[in-house]
Structure formats: C-alpha cells, structure tokens
Design brief:
- The chain is mostly beta strands and about 120 residues long.
- The protein has 2 domains: about 30 residues, no CATH class; about 70 residues, Beta Barrel (OB fold (Dihydrolipoamide Acetyltransferase, E2P)), CATH 2.40.50.
- Helix content is about 0%, strand content about 55%.
- The strands form 3 sheets. Strands 4, 5, 7, 10 and 12 form a 5-stranded antiparallel sheet that branches.
- It is elongated.
C-alpha cells in the first residue's frame, strides 16, 4: 500500500494506492486541510489593459490563452489575429471582426477562459 498526496481543483487529498493484478486501485481519499496562509494570496485576475471599446471580442469556446498578438493602441485590420486560444488541443486564432484600434486586452498568456468571456475590445 503506497500513500500519495494529490491536489484537485486546489484541494489537497491523501490517497492510498494498492497494486492488485497490475492495475493501481484507489482505496481511500480523504480531504486534507490546507495549511494556514501566512501572507495574502496574490490575485490571479489578469491586469486589464485599456478601457472597453465598442467592439467586444469574446471567447468562442472554453480554453487557454496561448498568446496575445496585439497591444492596447495598435491599429488592426479585419481578420488580423489578435489572440491564440487553445481548445481541445487545437490552436484557434481569434481574429478582429472588423478594422479598428485595440481598446483593451482583458486576458494574458496562460489564462483559462470560459465561453463568452471578454478577451479584448476594439473601437
């Protein structure tokens, strides 16, 4: 019987795993209390840049931001790639729906986003 610590959605568990016939089987999973924080946790919210413009670009599906290709104040053409979103192991280029100026970038590289979440805006 081997004991392991695992973390699922920020919650720590202690598990015991016993090898039976070649396949590990989890025999117990109990939540373990997280240690008390000594300092306030850093905010995981992105540092929003700029102010929201009239043309909003939202996530078409849940995923992870792999790259931000523009900055606030940049002029962009219709169809120009603004961000790269990874979803279901595929890279999706998020393009400008029309020409304009980048008013805000509401995400950063490595951030997980939900469908419909504001990614950026143009004016």
């Amino acid at each position: 019987m081997n004991k392991y610590k695992i973390k699922v959605n920020g919650k720590e568990y202690e598990v015991e795993v016993e090898q039976i016939g070649g396949d590990p089987v989890v025999t117990a999973a109990t939540p373990k209390a997280a240690p008390a924080a000594t300092a306030p946790a850093a905010s995981t919210a992105p540092k929003k840049q700029g102010t929201v413009g009239s043309i909003k670009i939202t996530a078409p599906m849940p995923g992870t931001i792999l790259g931000v290709k523009v900055a606030v104040g940049d002029s962009v053409e219709k169809g120009q790639t603004l961000l790269v979103l990874e979803a279901m192991k595929m890279e999706n280029e998020i393009a400008a729906p029309e020409a304009g100026t980048v008013s805000s970038i509401d995400v950063e590289t490595g951030m997980s986003v939900e469908s419909g979440q504001l990614l950026a805006s143009l004016s």
